[in-house]
Every structure is written in C-alpha cells, then in structure tokens.
Amino acid sequence: MKKTDILTPAGILIGMTAVMLAIYGNAAGDGEVADFIQFSSILIVFGGLSAAIVINFSIPDLKLLPRVFRETFRTKEHDLEQLINTFVDLSTRARREGLLALEAGLEEVDDPFIQKGVLLAVDGIEPDVIKDIMLAEVTAMEERHRKGRTILEKAGEYAPAWGMIGTLVGLVLMLQNLNDPESIGPSMAIALLTTLYGTLMANLVFLPMANKLALSTEEEIFVKQVIVEGVIGVQSGQNPKILEEKLSAFLPDHIKGKEEDEEQDLNE
C-alpha cells in the first residue's frame, strides 16, 4: 500500500528555508527576497528547460510526467517478514491440501504479483517457465520506471545549463551597456540569478527526486525477487521451514538479528 511521503516536501522546504535564511542572514543584514526574484531569469530557465524537455521526449513520455512527480511524494512500505510468513502459509497449505487448494484463498493476498505467480504454479507450469514469466514482468516494470525517471534526470541536467545560458545573456547585456551604469545592475542580476535558479532546481528538486525514484525501483525489484523465489518454493513443494530459512536470507541483518534474539529468549 502506498502512503504519502512527507520527506520529499520536507526536504524541499528545508532547502528553501536554508536559502531564505542565507538571504536574510547576510553580513550586511539588508537582504530581501524580492531582490532574488527576477522575471527575466525565471523566463530563461523555466522556458528554456521546458523547451528542452519537449524536444527530448515524445508526447506519451511527457504524459507520464504528472504521475512521475506524484510518485516522488508517495512511498510504498514493504514488510518482508509478513511476506515470508505469507509464503510459509501458502507452502503449508500446498503440502497439506495440494496446489489446487491455493487458488481458493488467493483473494486474501493483496499483491497481484503474488497472485499471478501462485496461479501459474496452480496451472502446473514448470518452475523455470514461471521464473522467466515473472522476471520478464519485473524487467518491464523496471523499464517503465526508468523511462519516467529519465525525464527528471534530464531536467536536472538541463536546468544548470539554461542557468548558464541566462548568465551569458546577462553578461552580453551588461557589456553592451557599460556606458550606462544604471543598466549594469539589472543585467548582472539576470546573469547571476539564472545560474542560481537553474542550480537550485537541479540540486533541490529534479536530481533528488530522480534518485529517490531509482532507490524505490531498486527496493521494489528486490521485493519481487523474493516473491519469485517464494512462488518457486511453493510450486516445488519445499518444506515450509526450509522455505522460511531460504527467504529469510533476504532479510536485512538488523531484522535477522532481532529474530535470533527472540528465538534465544524463547529457548531460555
């Protein structure tokens, strides 16, 4: 089940707060947020960035963008211990009542990937074929996630570049009007603020979001690999205790250590 992830908005808020505090806490003590808002700089960075993204990707890819952004504000919790217990129960039932009995209780399993694997096992498909089918779905999922994540990665690459383009525009304007002292300030503001906007968007929004999605995909792939091993174990009729030991190898060390301590306490 996916839940709202407060860490993404919290991280962006912390970053923006740090910038604001830096503005107000400068040595001169006269910093104003309004001094850092420049319409021309915003137009160059965000307009240029939007143009580059539109050129780089197709319309179907761009339609993924709202969903990609939405996913960065959501998280999916994976309970490996509960997952292992699910396969232990399925293995126990399969050995006691046969594989066909598993189909009747599948509505109790929330994960569609587990349901698909168990149904393949119930249909009597060979373990190697089951593994190939399920891993093919994992590969397809990874590719979908990669395609959506690439948009954010490219935005993170293009934003600083367009900031530099804005800097060049500002410098050109400044050099063309050196005889007009009043124009030097606004031109220099464009030159510097575009770099600030581009770098800030890349390193506070786009690249952290892309990395977060990459880590989320890795975690989901790992969990699905555990599910594949569990389904194969159930299909092959492995002893529930052996299957539990096999799947427990996927648990993090701190969880395995906790389980060992609990078993030791029970034995005492």
From TrEMBL:
Keywords: Cell membrane, Membrane, Transmembrane, Transmembrane helix, Transport
Classification via InterPro entries: Flag_MotA_CS (IPR000540), MotA-like (IPR047055), MotA_ExbB_proton_chnl (IPR002898)
Residues annotated as domain MotA/TolQ/ExbB proton channel: 108-221
An annotated GO BP: bacterial-type flagellum-dependent swarming motility
Predominant location category: membrane
Segments traversing the membrane: 7-24, 36-59, 155-175, 187-207
Pfam families registered for this protein in UniProt: MotA_ExbB
GO CC list: plasma membrane
Topology with respect to the bilayer: Multi-pass membrane protein
Localization: Cell membrane
Origin: domain of life: Bacteria
Family: Belongs to the MotA family.
Entry protein name: Chemotaxis protein MotA
Organism in which the protein naturally occurs: Salisediminibacterium halotolerans
